[in-house]
């Protein structure tokens, strides 16, 4: 839903980041604006996950406690 916020939580290692990274890339390719906020993962870890999908032509903004979007 446009303008919504989604919080996903569960046990470690079940695929939350993989699912959300793939979903973000798909929605970005369809023209949706997204921001992926993580307080547990470093940007490099998120980028490594994103490399497994076709994310070359997507624009997904990332924010972690280590990197703030201006």
From TrEMBL:
Q: Which InterPro entries match?
A: P-loop_NTPase
User: Could you tell me what this protein is called?
Assistant: DNA repair protein RadA
Species: Bartonella taylorii 8TBB
């Amino acid at each position: 839903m446009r303008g919504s916020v989604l919080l996903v939580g569960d046990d470690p290692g079940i695929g939350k980041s993989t699912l959300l990274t793939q979903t973000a890339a798909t929605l970005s390719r369809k023209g949706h604006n997204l921001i992926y906020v993580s307080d547990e993962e470093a940007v490099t870890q998120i980028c490594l996950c994103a490399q497994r999908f076709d994310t070359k032509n997507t624009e997904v903004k990332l924010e972690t406690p280590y990197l703030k979007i201006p």
